[in-house]
Each structure stands twice: as C-alpha cells, then as structure tokens.
Amino acid sequence: MASYLCMKLKPRYVLSGLEGVYYERPPFRCPNLGDHDTTIELATRFISLARVGNPNKDKWIYALSLTPLDKMKFNELLQKTTDETPCPFSIQYLECRIFNKKRKSSGPSQYFYDMDAPMEDKRGKKKTKKPKVEFDQSKCWFCLASPSVEKHLIISVGNHSYLALAKGGMVEEHFLVCPIEHHQSSIAQPDEVLNEINQFKEALRKFYKKKGNVPIFFERNYKTSHMQLQAVPIPTNANRELKEIFFDESEGQGFKLETLDPSNRLDQVIPPKVPFFAVELPDSTILYTKIQGSTNFPLNFAREVLACGPVLNMPDRSDWRECVLKKEDEELLVQRLRTEFEPYDFTVE
Question: What is the pLDDT of residue 35?
Fold first, then answer.
C-alpha cells in the first residue's frame, strides 16, 4: 500500500518514525503507473526519524519549508538533482498487483528492493537484511565515464580530475574542477586526486591573474553526490572585506561560518559523511560550516554572496538555472576558453 501511494501520489517528502532510526536517502522519481497515469514525476525524498531522546542523539525532528506547487515554476519541478537514484519500487510488481498484468520476469526486482522479501518481524524474529541503496554512477552528471555528463563543457582532462565550464555560470570564466571517478567531496579524495585538483587551482589562479582577477573557490557537499569545486573570478579590488561579507550573509541566512586554522585541513575538522560548505578566499583563507540537524542550507548561498553589489554586482545571476546558455553558445565559449587556458594547462605536453 505504501509503495502504491508513493508511486501514485508522487509526494515531495515521505517521513516515517515507525522504525525509530534516522535515515535520509537520496531523492528518487516514481514513473507513472499504467497508461492513464499522467501525474508529473516529482522528486521524492524519504526521511526516517529516530525516537525522541534516543541515546545516540540521532535526528528525531525535521524542519521543512515547502513552496506550494502552484507557486513554483514548471521547470523547477522537473529539474533533477545530481544525487537522484532510480525508483526503489518494482513497477512490474505493482502493475501486476494493481492492474492484474502478467509479470514479465520471475527474477529479482529490476531496482534495489525485492518486494516479495519478508518484512521485519516486530516480535523479535530473525529479519531479512535489506540491500543497501547504491548510487547509480551511470546517471551521475559529473562522472566522466557516465553517458549523462555533458562532455562539450570540458576544458581540460588530467589523470584524476578535469576542468569544465560551469553550466549556468555566473560569468564566462566560471569553472568546475571535478574528480574523474565518483568521489563525493574533497575530504573523501585519494591524495593523488586532491594533488591534481590543487594543480588545476594553481593554473586557474595564473589564468585569472592575467585578466586582473582573483579566484573564489567553493564547494557544497550537500544534496549532491559528486564533488564539484567551483571557481569564480572576481576583480582584485572586490577582494576587500570579502570575509566580512560572507560572515554577514551567513548570519542573515541563519547559520555560522568558521575560519579554518591554517595549520589544519578540512578533513581534520569535518567528520566523514558530514555535509558541509567551504569557500576559499583569494588570500587562501578557508571559511566553512557543517550542515547538520534540521538546517535547511541555501543551495545558492555562494552565488548569492558573489552576486551582491560589493563583489560582482550581478543580482540576477544567483540562480544557475536562469543563466543557462544554448548548447551551441556553450560550445563556442568552451572552444575559446580552451585556447585561452592552454598556456596554463599542466595537462598539455
């Protein structure tokens, strides 16, 4: 019944407290059931909450700030996130039960769960362990081997990482540095990957300096599954009081940024698997925050700061979806940037 309701109603959130365990899985979309189901395929997020006052202090409360569907743009409803997974329910199973259709296969479920597997017995009997939900890397927008990656945006490819034009960039020279293989964040990288990413950062510093700019590097390890280090150039004179601007904006949005001690690395202050945001200023100062509890972190925070008057003064460029170019324009821009970046490209022999 629950799987059918989820498939039919396509809710944006499903919350559960029956198991008393905190768990938040990546979003998924339920395809339509039957030939007459014309419901829009919305992204669904499943959240299980722990019991109040649990000894492990796991999350037992969740705050939501939902915009009504009739107030949202249609393209926002269809926009996919980078960490979406396939629907966990078996469509064949549900159609068989609901529409009395013959099942095409008697083999295992085409997705992640065996819908005929025994459920957990509340009376303490031995329970069947559910398979772990794994992210389908073939659908990742940023894994270089994935068919989903937009290869026409790539500027340069190294041994472990690559440089690409940011889709919907704030300015023409807004880049992404990403690991070639699937790594979630900078604190979960092998040393050889991190070292090469640092080489791209140094090359970008030299590239921007030639044009009288300095780089802002930022990373949001929240609601994404593949590391993306974003690089945005700002005028050298806009660097003044940048740290204070970030602090003021973060306080205004309800969270606090901290300054990383120069003797530490991010992986020394942020535990594994903890979501975070970090920004590196032109003077190498790193500001960061851990995203925990019921925090609803603003996804466009860094862009909103950089778009403000004292920095880039581009208030209409804070949302990448409003800045996307036509594919042919992206291709022309990438061709020009490849040529301009080549003198600084360490991957060119």
Answer: 47
Residue range 24-44, pLDDT digits in tens: 888 888 776 554 454 566 788
Helix (H, G, I), strand (E, B) or coil at 204: helix
Per-residue tokens: 170: 């704030």
What angle, 0 to 180 degrees and rounded to 10, lies between the N-to-C axes of helices 327-341 and 191-209?
A: 90
- Structure tokens belonging to residue 162: 């690559």
What is the CA angle 109-111-112, rounded to 5?
Answer: 95
Half-sphere exposure of 224 (CA within 13 A, CB side): 21
Name 222's Cβ contacts closer than 8 Å, sequence gap at least 6: 275, 276, 277, 291, 297, 299
Amino acid at 326: K
Q: Which residues touch 176 (CB under 8 Å, ≥6 apart)?
A: 142, 163, 164, 165, 166, 228, 229, 230, 231
Q: Which domains does the chain have, with CATH numbers?
A: 2-99 (no CATH), 145-344 (3.30.428.10)
Q: How far is CA 122 from CA 53, 119, 126, 127, 158, in A?
A: 21, 9, 10, 9, 52
CA–CA distance, 30 with 3 (Å, rounded to integer): 10
Residues 49 and 60 sit within 8 Å (Cβ to Cβ): yes
Q: How far apart are CA 135 and CA 115, in angstroms?
A: 19
pLDDT tens string 305-347: 999 989 999 999 999 999 999 999 999 999 999 999 999 999 9
Beta strands in 222-346 (DSSP E): 229-235, 258-259, 276-280, 286-290
pLDDT of 246-275, one tens digit each?
999 999 998 999 999 999 999 999 988 899
Q: What is the pLDDT of residue 121?
A: 47
Instruction: List the alpha helices (DSSP H) in the chain.
Output: 2-9, 74-78, 91-99, 191-209, 242-252, 266-269, 301-307, 327-341
What are the CA-CA distances from residue 156 to residues 181, 204, 217, 227 (Å)?
15, 12, 18, 17
Query: Judging by DSSP bridges, how do beta strands 43-48 and 13-16 pair with one another?
Result: parallel
Asked whether 334 and 279 are in contact (CB, 8 A), the reply is no
pLDDT (0 to 100) of residue 30: 75
